[in-house]
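We now fix the convention by which a protein and its fold are recorded. Think of the row as the fold of the chain written in a discrete alphabet. Here is one such record, which you should read through line by line.
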Amino acid sequence: MGRRLPKRLDSLDVKILEGLAIYGPRNLTEVARKVGTSTETVRCRLNRMSSLFWLGMSANLYHANLGLKKAVVFAEATPGYEEILIHCLEIKGFCIYLTRCYGMFEGYLGIYVIPKDHETEFEEFIQHVEKLGLVKNMQVFWSTCFHTVNRTGKWFDYESGTWIFPWDKWIEEIQAEGTELPDTLVDPEDFPVKADEIDIFILKELGEDATISLSNIAKKLGTTLQSVRYHYEKHCIGRGLIETFMIFIMPFDRAVSDLYFFRFKFDSRETMAKFALSLLDKPFVYIVGKVLRENAIIAQFYLPKPEFRRFVDSLVKLIRGGFLQSYAYVVQDVRPGTWVSEDLKYELFKDGSWIYDHKEHIKNLHDLVERMIPKKKQAL
């Protein structure tokens, strides 16, 4: 019987994750070659990490090149309506992530991708949720595409096989960072639709599972492998429809760690850029986005509870030093049934544009409220 591996990431696991971040989950042979092991060992390690650490691999889409504008919504629930609110905030096909959260409020965090020129209608939908008395407060932040931060060996001690968190060195690193942001964190000049229907189908499949073969996608679509390969290489990759492949994993003990969503505000673009750049190779960061037309960023973190307190202490130091203006955060609930995640709806893309039926969304919202809440309890 082989040696039983501990229920934590070891040095080879981290090297494999780092290889996936560089070469992608569709090139396991190259990952294996670079880390000095066999492809079969890589597959076995990935299966183990999937079962122990919630490992998932998907395409992170560059929504700005799909004619979609990203919105982040913080919704503070009216007491008693917390479990109902998740259903009311869903907009089928355009709500890609919705999770119960607590901290600065009890409610939900939602991430939406809204077709350009429909921003006002989406905000009107949010106002309808407020008027129905389901929430005490709602905030909408329009964002750039999210920059994916995959796991690297940064802050991993290969000798001891443990993660380290040198917060003081991080503060020094922020000061020394440059100010040139990657394209993902720069306000887009436009939100063009660079995809066709075949592209959208391919992106939908890769969003569900980045390791799916192009031949399987061709079978599902009912077309040739040559056609799918052409669209994948020339459109999905060539036109920048995929930002990168996201290697999602919870590397720390889930029993003593939490998932957070932060918003940071800065006095200048320079300090914002330095702070954002310092996050792009850290093991506790998943995604980073910039609030459009503001010196503010939003980010999703995963941290052990003791390190979270040290992280907050570091933020306090940055505020006292005049580097950071303010921050706010919510803790995400990761229990089953408290969150939903949805990929692109292929059926909602026709003739080069998205079908966004605002009237239908409002009708569905009111119908849902009438079914779930007695009329006497509804807000006037």
Notes: The chain has three domains: 11-53, 56-194+240-380, 197-239. Residues 193 and 353 are 7 Å apart (CA to CA).
